[in-house]
Amino acid sequence: MKGKKGVMWLGLFLCALLVCAVLNSPAMAAGKEILIGAPVSMTGPLAPDGLELKWAYEQAVADWNKKGGIFIKEAGKKLPIRLVVADDESEPAKVAAAMEKLIKIDKVDLMLGTHSASMSVPACNAAEKYQVYYHTTTHWPEMWTPEHYKWSSVMFFSATGASDVPFVIWETMLKKEDRPKNVALLMEDSPDGMAFGNGFRAHAKEHGYTYAVDEPWAIGAKDYSSQILKMKAKNVDAILLYGAPTDAITLVRQIKEAKLNVKYMHGWKGTWANEFALALGKDASYVICDGFWSEDFPYPLCKELGRRYTAKFHKRSVSTGAFYGTAQTLFMAIERTQSYDKTAVRDTFRNGEYKNTVMGDLKFDANGLALFSSTANQWWDGKQMLFYPAVKGGYKLKLAPPWGQR
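-> structure tokens emitted (406 positions)
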């Protein structure tokens, strides 16, 4: 009996080994879906941007799933994509926790990025720690490249290039007598703000400008009267600012209350959010915002994506395409490799070219960085109107009259 029992247990043991081998074989390793995780700022000061980011990711997922998903060689068929998000609460200190939840609890395969460099730095660090692939936008190449990350890729414009835009606009789109004379620089007191500020200072020198006011911009402050008084004393007629939507709204309201008249106000990060225009109403008119994308771009899906966005939010967007394009290129990489293996996807991005995306043709370098150009748009009648780069027959920049004459 003992011998028979021994044989029986040995048989069971061998069967168990066989089951494990089958379950771990390439054909069985692929799951029933491709899980894509994303830390998103759904609450906190970056929520207006985060909710748009989430919507754009969802659109990209829906578009690919309409085609049946992505063919995965190990599965022998197309698998649907499922997006899983975790709220990073707009706090850099909480990004790692959101990433950890997605990796350890939700068991995501690959990751899309959160918004802004201050949030992406800890996200990229977490991707390195857990060795999960993280593909993002709105992260400055100047901050990302020196770190030599192994598990992330970025598609964005450089702070150095973007910070030259207002000077080019003044010199090519304004008559000499209309160009600003006393410019204020208000940069958010964050890694993003510091990176952008350095670019603005360098380009000001190149173009012969000296800032009348150059002040750090406190995040979440309720009172900006100190900066406004300094700008009034220096007869500031143009403001270049970088900050979150909620802070930009507060600043514009207090500028109006103080009757500070500037003919050119150009914001990055905060002034392009729809919430900025909704909160300020007609006072948002004439304010200029940066942009990553336009529905007027001559690329596939741009007009359709713009139509969907307007139908959903009743506004135009200058950023949705960059977010959609981030997901789009990740899905193209998975499709190209026929796998969602993190190493294979990473290697596909490096030195890879992606044509006819909603951001045009993108080329990633050996580190996984692809650059595109920034745009400039002006709020007018509740819409963001693209004026830079100029489009034939397109909208023309308007200088702001004094508050009492609007």
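The radius of gyration is 25 Å.
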